[in-house]
Please model this.
Amino acid sequence: MTRELIIAGFGGQGVMAMGKMLIEAGLKENYHVSWVPSYGPEMRGGTANCSVVISDEPIGSPVVTQPNELIVMNNPSLSRFEPLMEEGGLMLINSSHVEQTPKRRDLDIRFVPCMEEANRIGNPKVANMVMLGAYIAATGAVKMDTVKEMLGAVFHGSKEHLEDLNIQALEAGAKYISRN
Amino acid sequence: MTQIIYQRSKGLKDVETHYCPGCHHGIIHKLIAEVLVEMDLLDTAVGVSPVGCSVLAGNYLDCDFVEAAHGRAPAVATGIKRVLPNHLVFTYQGDGDLASIGAGEIVHATARGEHFTTIFINNAIYGMTGGQMAPTTLLGQKTTTSQSGRDPLLHGRPVRMAEMLSTLDGMAYCERVTAANMPELNKAKRAIKKAFTLQMQGIGHTFVEVLSACPTNWGMSPADASAWVKSTMSQVYPLGVKKDITAEEKP
Amino acid sequence: MQKELWKGNEAIAEAAIRAGCRAYFGYPITPQNEIPEYMSKRMPESGGVFVQAESELAAINMVYGAAAAGARAMTSSSSPGISLMQEGISYLVGSDLPAVIVNMMRGGPGLGTIQPGQADYYQATRSPGHGDGHMPVLAPSGIQEAVDLMWDAFEMADKYLTPVMVVADGMIGQMMEPIVWNRTEPLPEADKPWAANGRDGEGQTHFVSSLRLQSSENEQFVHTLKEKYEEITKNEVRYEAVGCKNADILIAAFGTTARIASTAIRKLEKEGIRAGLFRPITLWPFPYEALKELALQESVKAVLTVEMSLGQMHEDVRLSVLDKKPTPFYGRTGGMVPEPKDIAEKVREVIKEAGK
Model:
C-alpha cells in the first residue's frame, strides 16, 4: 500500500521532524519513502507542513495532494487539509491545540491531547513525539522499535536522558490511541 | 661596435598593436611587460583583459590572458586567482569597464581583498565605442554623448575610483599614477611592481590607476593630450598613493 | 549498496564534489540556498574553492575565470538568477569552456514565486544568452537521478568543452528521498592544453576569449559549434519511456511533472487506460526521433504534454509528432503544481475526444 500523509501545524511544533523520522524509519524497513516540506514564506511564522509518502512500490508524485492520512497539529491546518482528504482516510488531531470540530463524516478521526500527555511526562517539547507514537500505533506504518533504535542513535552521551524522554512520549501517544 | 640602448621588452610579443597614435595603452603594456620580466613571472602570470580598446591585450603581452565580459574582469580574476593561488593574476580595465558597468564587481572584489592586481586605465572617455561619456569624464568635457560638455546637473560628476575603493578594508595598496611623461612613467612602473610584489605576499587587493590619454577621442594631438592629462585631469584625479597598508604598519 | 536519505539540494552539491568539482561560485536565491550553504562547508574541506559572489552576474563570471584557468567549476541558482547568468553562459559557449550550471527553477516571470516551475525551458534549450549557441540540458526527475547526472554533466562539459545545465525545481531541491551512491570516483582530470594557467614558453601563450573581430572567422567558429552540437545530438540524447509500447496515449513530461504524471498513469491503469510516460532526460538535445517513433504506433491516439508552464516543451513534442497525431497540452504555471487527478482527467478527456 501507499501511505500518503500530510503532517501540518505551526512552525516549531516539530512537524518537519516527525516527517523526517517517519521516512528514516520507513527506509530502515525497506519501504520506498519521500518527504517534501512546504518551503518559503510559510516557513517564517505561519503554518508548516510536509508531505510524506511511505510505500511498498516506487513513488510517483512525492507531493501529496489527496492524503489518505493526515496529522493536524493546529486549527489552520484542519481547515486547509481536511477537505483534501481521501474518503475513508485516517485523520489524527492534536486536540490540545485544535478546538475546531472536523466536518467530514467519511473519515476515521482520532483525537490526541499531545500537550497534556507531554506535560504529564514532564516536557511540552515532546508533544510531537506523542503524536508520532499515536500515529505509529494507529497505522503500523513503521515499527515502534525502529523509531526507538533511531532515538538511541541520536541521543547518546550527555543527551542520553533525552532518549528516555522521547521514548516515554512515543509510548504515551501509542497508549492513548489504544485506549481511545 | 653597436650598443643596444633600447629594445622591445621580452614581455611583449613581436607584433604591431592596433592602438591609435599617441594612445597610452602601448606604453602601459610595456611597463607591465617590463615588471613581469623583472619579476620573472611571464611563465605563470595570467592577465584578464576587458571590453574596450585593450580587449586584445592578450595578443600583445607575452603571458596568458583571459578575455572577460564587459565589466566582469574582477569576477573573472577572482575565479582564476582562487583556483591558481600561486600565480600572479592581474586585470587590465578601462574606465567604462571598471567604473561604470563593472562598478559592482570591482567594489566587491576589493571588499573581499581578492589577491589580484587591478590596472585601471582612466582616460575619461569610452575609446572603443567612439568617444562617449564615461563616469570619469571631466565636467565640461565634450564627448559624443555630452556634446555640450559634461553637465553636473544632467550627468553627475566624475567618479574617483581610487579614493572610493581605498575606503574598503580589503584594499591593501592603491596608487594613482600617469603615463603622461617620463618621470611619471618611472613612478607608474614602480607602482605596478609594488602592486605585483604585494599581491604575491597575499595581503589584499592591489590597485593602480593610470591616468592616460586618448588623443583620438579627445580630438587632440598626442603631445597636447599628454600635456592635458598632467595639467587638467590630474587636478580632478590627484596623483599619489591613496592607501598602503604596508606603510601604515611602520611606526 | 547502502541507501541514504538526502535532501535534493545537498545531494546535488555533494555529488558535484564527489564527481570532482573543485570550484563553486554562487549567490543566495530560494529554492536552492542549501547548495551554496553546503558548498561553503564541504568545498574547502575537500580542497576546493567556494566564493559567495556579489551577484549571479559575478558568480557566472567567476565560473568563467576558474574554467578558463582549467578548474572544474560550477554554479547554481534559480530562474531570476539564471536570467542574470545568461551573459556569462554565452561567453562560456563563445570560449568553448566547460562548466556546470544548476537551475532550480521557480515560477516566473519576474520575481514570480519560489514554488516549482518549468517555464525556463525555452531559455535553457533554445540558445543560452545571445548568439548561436546551445548547451546540453539535463532534467532529473528525482534525487537519485540528479546525483547520477552530476557526474554526466561534468563529463559532458569536459568532453565537449561546453556549459551544461541541470534543471530541476524547488520540489526536487527541497525534498528528501533515499539514494545510493552509484558512482563514487571523481572524474579523471581532463587534459586542458588551452587553459590559461601559465604559458608553455616564449610566445606560446593561452588566450581564452570569445572575441573574433573578423566576421568570417566568427562564422567559422560558430560552424565548429554546430559540429559539436551535431556530435552531442548523436551521442547524448537521453530519455525514459515507461509503458509506451502499444499505449493508448503518451504523456510527455520531464522532471517533477513526470513523477506526478506517473501517479496519474497508475490511476488510469486501474480504469483500463494504457498511458505511457515519455520523459526526456536531455531537454537539449531533445529526443525527437524516439518520441516520433513511439507516437506513430497504431495504438497511440494522442501525445499529451504536461508541464509547469504554458507549454514550452510542447513545441518540441509537436516538432517530433508533427501533425500525425493530436498533441494536446495540460499545464499549470506560475508556481502551481499539476495534480495527478487533473492529469488523469485530462487524459480521459483526450481519449474521449480521440474516440469520436
